[in-house]
Amino acid sequence: MNRHYGRRALGRVLGGLVALAAVTPTVAAPNGRPAAWTQAVEPFRIVGNVYYVGSRGLASYLIVSPAGDILLDGTLAENAPLIERNIARLGFRLGDVKVLVNSHAHSDHAGGLARLKQDTGAVMLASQGDRWSLEHGRHLGDNVFGAGSFPPVKVDRVVKDGEAIRLGGTVLTAYLTPGHTPGCTTWSLPVSEAGRRLQVVIPCSMTVAGNVLVGNRAYPNVATDYRSSFARWKAMKADVVLTNHPEVADVLGRRRRQLAGQPNAFVSRGELQRIAVAAQADFDREMAKQVGAKLRTGGSQTAKGGRGG
For 248-282, how does the pLDDT look when each residue is reduced to its tens digit (9 = 90+)? Predict the structure, then answer.
């Protein structure tokens, strides 16, 4: 019996019987961040060997295999204990997490990685473009929201574009999709669900999120990188799309539909392209706005660092 279906199955079944509450409207906490970013949510299996172990507003995905598990994204620093509890609630052992990977080096997705690396003993894999930020705990690039910081985490090995991470039959492939950050990485893996093979894609964030697109001194190729990544996302095959901000692909809404008896709730071919098209339209509007502002003022508003997204 596969480990991800057989180990401590009772805990996972009980977890699956707990219906998710309606997604809380976006409300700012006293620190200005959405309250949902730190709110607990029942962990659950999505498809195949992929599980949701994040908070209500920030996703973290556990990919299990007989040889050990892969954890994708650590969300906020204060969410590390929440992620660890969610892993345990599903019946998995924290010590079985062998590999940590990251979508991008912003505090809301990388902040918990240092604690998770310490507690699991896992190796940290990341792109070269985000390595500096991860190891220094600072966002890289000029951003109108100013500097952002998080606990630094040592990168044990750099992953290259198209590189496959193999663990116990699981094959997780890295695709570099820079723009949101210089090393923004989209991850993809095939899974088996009810006798079908499905391609799961976990795209990196596509939003501008305050990035300076014109005259970005710390990241001069930011606009070119965004455009290349939009083209890449639109060309990718994806049966299941899981975003690091779950509302972008309605991850928790799909879970409610799954619990209501829709076995294919997470299958949505064309979803990745829809998200990419919408994000590119937002990018184009922001680019036009920044170009216009630069022409009017003869300068640009920049600040080292940036707000996560």
Answer: 999 999 999 999 999 999 999 999 999 999 999 99
Q: Which residues contact 175 (CB under 8 A, 6 or more apart)?
A: 161, 162, 185, 186, 187, 188, 232, 236
Interval 92-110: pLDDT, tens:
999 999 999 999 999 999 9
What pairing do the DSSP bridges indicate for beta strands 97-101 and 185-193?
unpaired
Query: Which three-class secondary structure state does DSSP give residue 51?
Result: strand
Q: How many CA atoms lie within 13 A of 261 on its CB side?
A: 0
- Rounded to two decimals, the pTM is 0.89
Q: Where are the domains of the chain?
A: 3-297
Residues contacting 162, CB < 8 A, separation 6+: 173, 174, 175
Average pLDDT over residues 181-198: 97
What is the CATH code for 3-297?
3.60.15.10
Round to whole Å and give the CA distance between 46 and 110: 22
Element (DSSP H or E) covering residue 46: strand 44-47
Inform me whether the pLDDT recorded for 158 exceeds 50.
yes
Give dist(CA 186, CA 103) in Å, integer. Answer: 6
Q: How far apart are CA 120 and CA 262, in angstroms?
A: 35
> Smallest Cα–Cα separation from 148: which of 120, 117, 181, 121?
181
Please state which of the ranges 99-108, 143-152, 218-227 shows the lowest mean pLDDT. Answer: 143-152
d(CA 38, CA 152): 20
